[in-house]
Design brief:
This protein is α/β, with parallel strands linked by helices. The protein has 2 domains: 1-18 and 65-106 and 152-232, TPP-binding domain (Rossmann fold, 3-Layer(aba) Sandwich); 21-62 and 111-145, SIR2/SIRT2 'Small Domain' (2-Layer Sandwich). Helix content is 36%, strand content 19%. The strands form 2 sheets. The protein has a 6-stranded parallel beta sheet, with helices on both faces. Strands 5-4-6 form a 3-stranded antiparallel beta sheet. Bound molecules: adenosine-5-diphosphoribose. The site of adenosine-5-diphosphoribose (APR) has 23 residues, from helix 1.
Length: 232
């Protein structure tokens, strides 16, 4: 049965009120990546980095999944084959919207990670610059997110899924950040059909077989309806 692998980015959560990164007014027009999203930034100024993620954690906790998250959860439930969601997003809106099989390749705001002993636990709503690890007591707790210069999570598993995918979809991502931007090539190499759903053409649009332009809350439910109808 057809296996579907779906990559999502900030655009799928935009209509839930979470800012994207590279659009006008995006997060990276308000903050410099090297000030808030690198291991060096955290070493230099943990207070600024924790404050940045505390604010994002608070905003994400108030957000609700939109019709696009819900449509993907419906696809996972009703499709008679595997549907794997790989997200670059650190919010939990796929899971809140009912999705079950979600790989967070850039980590999650809901998690904390000890920089000293690698223990992981549920992040408190707000983390202090010298937040202690509950396991080893080192004042080295950080958000369990992947910063620039760090290795994304679950890569072996993701590449294995892409190697057996029949259909690959990329939703709401600019195609500017690797390795996710290369997944379309990986999927093609394994013979999958590929489709991009985005508000505008991405940096890697030309690599896709199909493209649907529009807001995720409209384009994704329509695409899911089409797939489910074809299956019946
Ligand atoms: N519906 C669909 N797409 C949208 C919508 C929407 N309502 N709003 C914006 N978009 C599209 C934009 O056109 C853009 O192409 O979503 C994309 C968002 O791109 P980015 O801001 O670059 O976000 P993303 O691709 O997820 O960034 C990748 O970069 O900074 C890092 O770690 C961060 O995971 C993030 C990674």
């Amino acid at each position: 049965m057809t296996k579907i692998v779906i990559l999502t980015g900030a655009g799928i959560s935009a209509e839930s009120g979470l800012g994207t990164f590279r659009d006008t007014d995006g997060l990276w027009s308000q903050y410099r990546i090297e000030d808030v999203a690198t291991p060096e930034a955290f070493a230099r100024n943990p207070a600024l980095v924790q404050a940045f993620y505390n604010l994002r954690r608070d905003t994400a906790a108030r957000a609700q999944p939109n019709a696009a998250h819900q449509a993907l959860a419906r696809l996972q439930r009703d499709w008679r084959g595997d549907v794997v969601i790989v997200t670059q997003n650190v919010d939990s809106l796929h899971e809140v919207g009912g999705a079950t099989d979600v790989l967070h390749m850039h980590g999650t705001l809901a998690g904390a990670l000890c920089g000293a002993c690698n223990h992981r636990w549920t992040a408190p709503p707000s983390m202090a610059p010298d937040e202690p690890c509950p396991a080893c007591a080192a004042p080295a707790a950080r958000p369990d997110v992947v910063w620039f210069g760090e290795m994304p999570y679950h890569m072996d598993e993701i590449l294995t899924h892409l190697a057996s995918a029949d259909l690959f979809a990329s939703i709401g991502t600019s195609g500017e950040v690797y390795p996710a931007a290369a997944f379309v090539q990986d999927a093609h190499a394994s013979g999958a059909r590929t489709i991009e759903l985005n508000l505008e053409p991405s940096a890697v649009t030309s690599a896709f077989d199909d493209i649907r332009i529009g807001p995720a809350s409209e384009a994704v439910p329509l695409w899911v309806d089409e797939l489910l109808q074809k299956q019946n």
